[in-house]
């Protein structure tokens, strides 16, 4: 799956991923009305609204991008009904041949991590049947509990040719509270990064590992260090756009082959129609605004990578 | 909700929680057969089997215990259908007036953490309605991303009188890989413990904070240190029983008031009928075996607390 991600990035010339993190506030009124007319102002109605919203955005952008990254929390907030919208979104993205990064940030001890891994990346046995739960291609995971929380994910990834992105340095302002604390003279996130490289060495694709890392766009200096520390690790970079990261900040997240990183934007793409820059599209054409925002983001990053050469 | 937990622990004299972490392997054949006869060997059939299993265990134990702790991973492994069984389990436990600790180990940045918090502990606005997603009483969360990943959970907890258990020192063998690393001469888990106490001071119940900590039974010396570092923090203690922790190891997790900790057992209770000690009950009476295992666990911990006095 890392090979597929790399090849799709090369084909689209777009090392980006669209974060499908909808809130009801992002969903234009005409879509909300349609969903509520059918299901009422219920969890089911909200889930339908998210799904209709996502579908249009996927339709408008899928041929420009290699991957989508639905943030499961935005669906989980609507309970089981929301999870249903998450699953429909995954299935639809798959039908468009997009690589799916489930932003689930799971992590637990041994057998419990395995249950998460099976549910999201693997297959589960029910009687004589072997079935898929959510079926993402990659999942984000939290390393706080150490190797025996990560290894069950790697095991399932090996069986299924799937991959992970392990949190190393997150994009939020207080990420330094624990991640930046010095251990033997080096910040915790570097120790985690080293572990990610070590875990990754056990499950390699052609040029990159199936085990990637999450490093926020908001800390470009740390991104530069981590890039060197984990040369074969693909880096998923959140924090572009709405959180403040720009293309020029991101050049050091990439290797000299122009690969090695994939930059996420969520609000900046899916709620583009609410920004002054794209307001001309109007709420009715929100998905066209998203398409334009994708084109602009690709060009921003491509320009930054070219001028860095 | 922390006051309710304390008062229920006092009423039952049972500082324990039953971990509802079923796998299909734990579900006796006659229940599997019943579920598969109705729904086939499908995700729905598996979910039904888990739910029927949980219901009998709750029926057999609810009047002995203050709380249950369903581990969401065991449901998530069966996709959306599994999540439905999780939700049915929560609703049934609530109807029996049990305190519900959702073992979800979530955590993300700002608005995403808030979405998790709303989905699991709070209420979500849909049009003019205000609705509940999963509706647990407590949730476990992961602190790796720092304060701005935890604060949105605390905000929702304040609005709803609900609580948290933050991972501090987990029970698994490799938990030390990052958690035990020394920062300014002290292990990371102590720094996290101090933060938990600080977060907890902002949301206090009568004698304990709404913000608790997870400290594994498998590290009793560390439990002792953390107990002193976080005097007003309720400690959720996994790792009893199947993972190796015994009542005698746990006395230092409690304060002198006999409170301050709640010990979880999962496999040791719900799969008791598979253990030699309880085999006499037979698979048909698995729930009675669970009841006996609860009685024995309460007596083990009560004995340990008494002989420590």
Automatic annotation (TrEMBL), chains A, B:
One GO biological process term: 'de novo' pyrimidine nucleobase biosynthetic process
Pathway(s) per entry: Pyrimidine metabolism; UMP biosynthesis via de novo pathway; UMP from orotate: step 2/2
Catalytic activity field: orotidine 5'-phosphate + H(+) = UMP + CO2
InterPro entries hit by this protein: Aldolase_TIM, OMPdecase_type-2, OMPdeCOase_dom, RibuloseP-bd_barrel
Keywords, ordered alphabetically: Decarboxylase, Lyase, Pyrimidine biosynthesis
A Pfam family annotated for this UniProt entry: OMPdecase
Keyword Lyase included in the entry's annotation: yes
E.C. no: 4.1.1.23
Record-annotated active site: 105
CDD domains: OMP_decarboxylase_like (cd04725)
Domain Orotidine 5'-phosphate decarboxylase: 15-281
Organism (species): Anaerobium acetethylicum
Molecular-function annotations in GO: orotidine-5'-phosphate decarboxylase activity
Gene this chain is encoded by: pyrF
Protein name according to UniProt: Orotidine 5'-phosphate decarboxylase
Annotated family: Belongs to the OMP decarboxylase family. Type 2 subfamily.
Source species taxonomy: Bacteria, Bacillati, Bacillota, Clostridia, Lachnospirales
SMART domains in the record: OMPdecase
Enzyme class: lyase
Coiled-coil ranges from the UniProt annotation: none
